[in-house]
TrEMBL record:
It holds the Pfam family MDMPI_N. This is TIGR03086 family metal-binding protein. It comes from Plantactinospora solaniradicis. InterPro entries: CHP03086, DinB/YfiT-like, Maleyloyr_isom, MDMPI_metal-binding. Residues 14-138 form the Mycothiol-dependent maleylpyruvate isomerase metal-binding domain. Signal peptide: none annotated. Coiled coil: none annotated.
Length: 200
């Protein structure tokens, strides 16, 4: 595996992941919300609700403020109004919360069962969640993939540090086999249980 994530670049990775999710949701039309996604048994609306709730959960862990009003793992699939209206405030609050975290903080509170983590890993976990759900939404709605090799490489470092214990909670599907010639994006997606051949 090439590349690494360092203390100095986790903020850039998080910002790019947030932008990817924001842009993917901006491309969702009212008629798209019911479409199926690579998240098995979840619609586009449910993935948006889940991703929004996850960002709120990270924010709450850092600030001590309120978390999501509904369980991100049982999203209703009913969004009143524009999806951006629920997502964008959550992303803004997440970015503001992470801005209060020191670059090299050794133990950052987060909603994951592993407990406090170094800033680069906790921030990377938040970025991983945003980026992979941006991909889910983009694929479901016929948008270009928001994942680039430059983003996938550091996210894979994060994934290999946090994902295995989370599979037991249903947060990620079992890893899929990866061909030896797969690029960094495919390696990440298949490690997270996403079939890279998924089609609408």
């Amino acid at each position: 595996m090439s590349g690494t994530i360092t203390i100095s670049d986790w903020r850039a990775v998080l910002a790019e992941a947030h932008t990817a999710l924001r842009n993917a949701v901006a491309g969702v039309g009212a008629e798209d919300q019911h479409l199926r996604t690579p998240c098995e048994q979840w619609s586009v609306a449910q993935v948006i609700q889940h991703a929004t709730g996850d960002q709120m959960a990270f924010t709450s862990a850092i600030t001590g403020g309120p978390g999501p009003s509904e369980n991100p793992f049982t999203p209703s699939g009913q969004i009143d109004g524009e999806p951006q209206a629920i997502l964008n405030p959550a992303l803004d609050a997440s970015a503001e919360a992470w801005a209060t975290v020191e670059d090299d903080a050794p133990a950052v509170a987060n909603p994951l069962p592993q407990g406090p983590m170094p800033a680069w890993l906790a921030g990377g976990a938040c970025a991983l969640d945003a980026a992979v759900h941006a991909w889910d939404i983009a694929m479901a709605t016929g948008q270009p993939s928001p994942l680039t090799p430059e983003l996938a490489r550091p996210l894979m470092v994060v994934a290999t540090n946090i994902v295995e214990p989370l599979r037991a909670y249903g947060a990620y599907a079992p890893a899929l086999d990866t061909d030896s010639g797969a690029d960094d994006v495919a390696v990440l997606l298949r490690y997270l249980g996403r079939p890279t051949t998924w089609t609408r």
